[in-house]
TrEMBL record:
The lineage of its organism: Bacteria, Bacillati, Bacillota, Bacilli, Bacillales. This is Calcineurin-like phosphoesterase domain-containing protein. InterPro entries: Calcineurin-like_PHP_lpxH (IPR024654), Metallo-depent_PP-like (IPR029052). Residues 1-176 form the Calcineurin-like phosphoesterase domain. Belongs to the metallophosphoesterase superfamily. YfcE family. SUPFAM superfamilies: Metallo-dependent phosphatases. Pfam families: Metallophos_2.
Length: 197
């Protein structure tokens, strides 16, 4: 089975539309899955600790054009976690639907997470020393990357890369600005990084 995996949309209509169109053109049979940070939270991490809710629009923009694009499964990222901590239940059906999204998901041969669940170095490198899964996909840092047994490998665009033998971790790169996504073929055990125009 093939999976189109992407992350870090941050409410970007144009970038999300471009990536989804690219997926439909290159891999129309692929199952779509977002690894979190679909929405952009307008309240920063520090401010959230003392934030008193006033209105939904001060926390998140729920643009109709953007919401029309969201027809795929998603994980909760740190942006959604913060939004859910700030927005009272039953105020927005869109936000309430997020409450049922998982933080982790297993698909064929792989674990999907949002990368805020990892520790990161100051150089934005993930600490993969505790990785036990043979294949891990994540987003969060906005930096595309491929790691084999914790060691960074080249992650060129448009090339089919084998993920057989060893433990692999795949940082998808962001939809926002970079328009990046990854095609995972669970039968062939390959990935391809793409960037929509």
């Amino acid at each position: 089975m093939r999976y189109a995996l992407f992350a870090d949309l941050h409410s970007s209509v144009a970038d999300t539309a471009a990536v989804l169109a690219n997926i439909r053109r290159l891999a129309p049979d692929a199952h779509l899955f977002c690894l979190g940070d679909v929405h952009e939270c307008h309240v920063g991490k520090k401010r959230a600790k003392r934030y008193s809710f006033e209105s939904l629009s001060l926390v998140v923009t729920l643009d109709d054009d953007f919401l029309k694009l969201i027809d795929f499964k998603t994980l909760l990222g740190n942006q959604e976690e913060r939004i859910l901590s700030l927005v009272p239940p039953h105020l927005s059906p869109v936000i309430d639907a997020l409450r049922d999204c998982p933080r982790k998901q297993r698909i064929e041969g792989a674990l999907l997470i949002h990368g805020d669940q990892l520790s990161w170095s100051r150089d934005f490198l993930p600490d993969l020393s505790q990785q036990r899964e043979p294949l891990l996909f994540f987003g969060h840092s906005h930096i595309r990357g491929l790691f084999r047994n914790g060691i960074a490998k080249p992650s060129p665009l448009g090339q089919t890369l084998s993920i057989k033998g060893g433990r692999y971790a795949v940082n998808l790169g962001p939809v926002m600005f970079e328009r990046e996504w990854c095609l995972y073929d669970s039968e062939q055990q390959t990935i391809v990084f793409y960037q929509a125009k």
